[in-house]
């Protein structure tokens, strides 16, 4: 979005979702610049991409999400959300950003961080296994080839996924995120296929 485009403020609705003549301007509302999700993850409601993210700004300052499956998240109070623009989305209107319950986010973040560091901790051992099977001539057989393919794909997937999960979402451009997603998905699929080849080789050799 360039600086010459006009920014559209959201329309105002009554609690029964009937449009009103009220506009989202400082004549009817008090705008406060703040971050309701300080220290926690923000989630955007983007109805352009997800139908369930449809939202309506009500005349009492709340945000209604009629299509959400979680009843507790159907109505967002004024202190639970903020209106913001995202340049990468290139939409002319403001989007709603909100945060989940503080304890839920903290628990999820702790679990995700531990899981990410666990994946990154396993990468050096996978790389060491790959190097050993690549350097030693006695291990350069069919089983060694399949094992190198397996651990190599796992090392690539774990390293990229771990780094991606530890990086704040707002710092990752959409193009890089999509590219990483394809590489991670391909690496995990390839590792499972290499594992199938290893299983067949073991069955063929010792079966």
Please explain how this structure is put together:
It is found in: Endomembrane system. InterPro entries: GPCR_Mth-like, Methusela_ecto_dom_2, Methuselah_N_sf. The protein folds into 2 domains: 1-102, Beta Complex (Methuselah ectodomain, domain 2); 109-206. It contains 3 helices and 8 strands; from the N terminus they run E-E-E-E-E-E-E-E-H-H-H. The chain has helices at 102-135, 142-166, 174-206; strands spanning 11-13, 19-23, 43-45, 56-58, 63-64, 75-76, 81-84, 95-98. The strands form 2 sheets. It has a 5-stranded mixed β-sheet, with no helix packed on it. Strand 1 and strand 2 (19-23) form a beta hairpin. Helix 2 packs antiparallel against helix 3. Residues 102-108 have low confidence and may be disordered.
Question: Which terms summarize this structure?
Answer:
three-stranded antiparallel β-sheet, 207 residues, alpha+beta, five-stranded mixed β-sheet, Methuselah ectodomain, domain 2, 2 domains, 13% strand, 3 helices
Task: Kindly summarize this structure in a few lines.
The protein is built from three helices and eight strands, in the order ββββββββααα. The protein has 207 residues and is an alpha+beta fold.
The biggest beta sheet reads: 5 strands, mixed
Residues in helices, as a percent range: 40-55%
Gross morphology = elongated
Return the average pLDDT rounded to an integer.
Answer: 80
Which CATH class of the largest domain? Mainly Beta
Q: What structural category arises from helix and sheet content?
A: alpha+beta
The helix/strand series, from N terminus to C terminus, equals: EEEEEEEEHHH
CATH superfamily of the largest domain: Methuselah ectodomain, domain 2
Low-pLDDT residue spans = 102-108
The oligomeric state is single chain
With helices defined by DSSP (H or I, 4 residues minimum), what is the helix count?
Answer: 3
Strand order within the widest beta sheet? 2-1-4-5-6
What portion of the residues fall into strands of 2 or more residues?
Answer: 5-15%
The count of β-strands is: 8
Would you tell me which CATH topology of the largest domain applies? Methuselah ectodomain, domain 2
* CATH architecture assignment of the largest domain: Beta Complex
Report the radius of gyration as a whole number of Å.
Answer: 25 Å
């Amino acid at each position: 979005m360039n600086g010459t485009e006009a920014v559209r403020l959201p329309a105002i609705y009554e609690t029964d979702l009937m449009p009103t003549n009220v506009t989202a301007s400082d004549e009817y509302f008090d705008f406060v610049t703040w971050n309701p999700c300080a220290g926690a993850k923000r989630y955007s409601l983007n109805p352009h991409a997800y139908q369930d993210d449809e939202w309506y700004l009500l005349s009492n300052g709340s945000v209604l999400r009629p299509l959400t499956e979680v009843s507790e998240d159907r109505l967002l109070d004024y202190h639970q959300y903020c209106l913001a623009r995202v340049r990468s989305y290139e939409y002319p209107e403001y989007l709603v950003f909100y945060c989940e319950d503080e304890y839920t986010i903290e628990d999820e973040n702790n679990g995700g961080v531990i899981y990410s560091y666990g994946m990154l901790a396993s990468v050096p051992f996978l790389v060491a296994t790959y190097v050993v099977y690549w350097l030693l001539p006695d291990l350069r057989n069919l089983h060694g080839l399949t094992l190198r393919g397996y651990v190599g794909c796992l090392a690539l997937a774990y390293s990229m996924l771990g780094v991606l999960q530890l990086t704040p979402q707002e710092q990752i451009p959409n193009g890089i995120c999509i590219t990483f997603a394809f590489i991670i998905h391909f690496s995990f699929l390839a590792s499972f296929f290499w594992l199938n080849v290893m299983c067949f080789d073991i069955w063929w050799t010792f079966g």
